[in-house]
Amino acid sequence: MLQYAGIFLVIALVAALFGFTGIVAGAVEIARILFFIFLVLFAASFITGLLRRH
Questions:
Q1: Helices (H), 1-54
Q2: Whole-prediction pTM value?
């Protein structure tokens, strides 16, 4: 999922380079949503791993 966030970030940067502001806004929002979903899943996985050890 983090890979998809990175891909959309690269798409946004390339689109910004060429001046496509509408595509940039959409790609940045998708990248931001995917990144936050990744963070939530990572935190849940980390906490679950800590609880399973004990």
A1: 2-18, 21-53
A2: 0.72
